[in-house]
Amino acid sequence: MAQRVLVVDDDRTVADVVCRYLEHAGYQVEHVGDGAAALAAVAAAPPQLVVLDVMLPVLDGLEVCRRLRQRPDGVPIVMLTARGDEADRILGLQLGADDYLGKPFSPRELVLRVASVLRRCGGEPTPGAARELTDGGLVVETGARVARLHGRELALTLREFDLLEFLMRHPARAFRRAELLDRVWGWRFGDQSTVTVHVRRLREKIEADPADPRRIVTVWGVGYRYEPADG
């Protein structure tokens, strides 16, 4: 069965192009033109992914993203932002968007981004890699893509889960932000503040005191390192 993608954009010309490219790639596509309609569509039949523009009538994309992140199903979100509008992009990532593209964008690149996000959502761990990572009450089940802290399931976005899994697989090793952008996001180029935002969000969810992190620590002048609680 084709995977379902909800496209939320009030620009009919942009939406028509995006929908056509996604349908050509084999996705089942639904389009709505405002934020309230997007929330109603997700509530009625949750899609596998939402392509979400920031500038929307009724409710803007940032508010839609915030409300979608309150849902337990964790539907992935690829956000579309005006190129150079860093504030919206950073806020979207802080609210839990899994990926973003700046307008104007290549429809082919959008299709590739959608495919990448969906593949990560349903992907299996690398052959031979541990399917469960455990560290001091923090358990990451890589096959099921579930993380728990002291038995409580964590509401992680796709990228947050990927980042946590990667860091736990490489404990006590410092990574530059550019390395994490490449090895977790698969981006050779991109805004490294994306990594900073996701680290901050992860700390809020797994650290006893996010202001004094003990697991994901900052290596000044380099990037970040995962320090096992059990080690």
Automatic annotation (TrEMBL):
InterPro entries reported for this sequence: CheY-like_superfamily (IPR011006), OmpR/PhoB-type_DNA-bd (IPR001867), Sig_transdc_resp-reg_C-effctor (IPR016032), Sig_transdc_resp-reg_receiver (IPR001789), WalR-like (IPR039420), WH-like_DNA-bd_sf (IPR036388)
PROSITE patterns referenced in this protein's UniProt entry, alphabetically: OMPR_PHOB, RESPONSE_REGULATORY
A Gene Ontology molecular function term of the record: phosphorelay response regulator activity
GO cellular component terms attached to this protein's record: cytosol; protein-DNA complex
Domain of life the protein comes from: Bacteria
Gene3D superfamilies: 3.40.50.2300, 6.10.250.690, Winged helix-like DNA-binding domain superfamily/Winged helix DNA-binding domain
PTM-bearing positions, type 4-aspartylphosphate: 53
Keywords for this protein: DNA-binding, Phosphoprotein, Transcription, Transcription regulation, Two-component regulatory system
Tagged with keyword Phosphoprotein: yes
Pfam family, one: Trans_reg_C
Record-level GO BP terms: regulation of DNA-templated transcription
Domain named Response regulatory: residues: 4-118
DNA-binding region(s) from the entry: 130-228
Cited SUPFAM superfamilies: C-terminal effector domain of the bipartite response regulators, CheY-like
PANTHER family named among the record's database cross-references: DNA-BINDING DUAL TRANSCRIPTIONAL REGULATOR OMPR (PTHR48111:SF4), REGULATOR OF RPOS (PTHR48111)
Protein known as: DNA-binding response regulator, OmpR family, contains REC and winged-helix (WHTH) domain
Natural source organism: Micromonospora mirobrigensis
